[in-house]
Write a structure and sequence with these properties.
Blueprint lengths: L10 H8 L5 H10 L14 H15 L13 H30 L1 H25 L2
Amino acid sequence: MTPQMGSSEPLHEQSKSTYGQYEGNQAFTQQQFETPYGQPPHNETIDDDFVEAVAQRIAQRLGQGAAGKVYPQPQPFDKNVLRIALAVISMLMLVLFAFLFVIMVGGTGGWISFGIASFTIFLIATVAIDKIK
């Protein structure tokens, strides 16, 4: 007797009949949806261009040097303290020169000397405050 291929055939005989047959298309479709070894599953919600743009923006803001090291940004507080200190020193020098030239020396020579000293202090302070960056 030969077994018939129909619905009356038991289940274990149907599975034996397909054993060892070529499953080319089925294997391909299964491999197509599996993730390759070593790679995380691809998430459709993450945009690679957006991630790349954010990474470049972060790298620009970190301020990397030529060696690839990250250096902290200098504090603007130190610069402002230097500018204020220079302005206070200039004012104190003007008061000292006013006392020295106008009161001690006196006369026209004292006023001319005070004017020259004041202009020199103003020039030095202006250039120095401008150069502090």
